[in-house]
Amino acid sequence: MEEIVEGVNSINLSSDSFKKNRIQVSNTKKPLFFYVNLAKRYMQQHDEVELSALGMAIATVVTVAEILKNNGLALEKKIATSTVDIKDDSRGRPVQKAKL
């Protein structure tokens, strides 16, 4: 758990990013509580955080949001869903993925 907190604290939150309070969640790159701790840090700096995920990572983003809500750290403001076209080289055509 300490290495997760250290990883979150070492992230550079520069002001040149497009959306300063958006976290793009992956279900394979980082542990679940990395995103929970990162969301807490973003909320301290920006008062709100936007969680975003594609495909199978949607389950991870929902879990992160529920942990934050159940601990009284966040409220749901808005939920938006859509689909995006992802190029799939093996099939030779675009594949639609869910986006939350």
Could you provide a short overview of the structure?
The chain is an alpha+beta fold. The chain is built from three helices and four strands; from the N terminus they run H-E-H-E-H-E-E.
Describe it for me?
The protein contains 3 helices and 4 strands, in the order H-E-H-E-H-E-E. It is α+β, with helices and mostly antiparallel strands and 100 residues long. It has one domain: Translation Initiation Factor IF3 (2-Layer Sandwich). The chain has a two-stranded parallel sheet. The chain has a two-stranded antiparallel sheet with strand order 3-4. Helix 1 packs across helix 2 and helix 2 packs across helix 3. The longest helix has 15 residues. The chain is elongated. One of its GO terms (molecular function) is RNA binding.
Produce the secondary structure layout.
Elements: H1 2-9, E1 22-25, H2 32-46, E2 50-53, H3 58-70, E3 82-88, E4 93-99
Parallel strand pairs: 1-2
Antiparallel strand pairs: 3-4
